[in-house]
Amino acid sequence: MRAAYQLLRIAGHLLTGTFTILFLFPHLSSEERARRVTAWAARMVALAGVRVIVKGRPPAVRGEGALIVANHVSWLDIYVLHSMLFTRFISKAEIKSWPLIGWLAKMTGTLFLERSSLRDAARINKEMAEHLRAGECLALFPEGTTTDGSEVKPFYASLFNPALEAGAQVWPVLIRYLDASGQPTLVAAYHGETTMAQSLMRVLRSGGIQAEVHILPPISAIGGHRRELAQAAETAIRDALARAGRDTAPETVARPPSAMR
User: Fold this and answer.
1) Contact 112, 93 (CB under 8 A)
2) Neighbours of 141 (CB within 10 A)
3) Domain 2-254 falls in which CATH fold?
4) In angstroms, rounded to a whole number, what is the distance separating the alpha carbons of residues 42 and 18?
5) What is the tens place of the pLDDT at every residue in 154-200?
6) pTM for the predicted model, two decimal places
């Protein structure tokens, strides 16, 4: 019963986001749009029963582009990162066709990539470099797939090129999901044969989980090579995952949920 009630509230929140984009966004500044997207994502995470815990400071993008690269565990990852700061995500083109979710992603600045097309890869690299030069924050999941959160798969290096071209900093980020007692949990994992509906209901029936976000020191992209940059980011996240597994009492900062107004 509780999960059904949460699901109903999430559906209402998706509709609220839709109406906000349709009727308010045309009259808002880019800064106000970003603020509302962040608040909306924070509310979405809270409605799903997820408490976000942040270790480290997100990039303060003031005229200098930043590329966030994170391990990928769940569909929740995007909302968790968006609840911290506004960023344009790089996403597979299939998501654009998802009912409502795809449209919301497009309208909030997501850049879509057709992964099987070399021509489209060139296009997305050019767009990413332009946004980074404009001082924006972008985010991607360079593993190219999701895991259960217990490992970090090798990073694809191709989408690191725009950071090199724009001279932007690369910010490695580790995302972990924990149960109420602070132990790693597979509840949020969206991988293998799990469907979106199954994953969502598993999260809602969990009684509440924690999303622990480790924001690691940035890596300079100036004068490097995309493979070296990808390897450095991958190693940083893998090492952070190993340390987190040994850390029984991390210093944390809890983020209270907020609502789109």
Assistant:
1) yes
2) 26
3) Glycerol-3-phosphate (1)-acyltransferase (3.40.1130)
4) 16
5) 999 999 999 999 999 999 999 999 999 999 999 999 988 888 889 99
6) 0.91
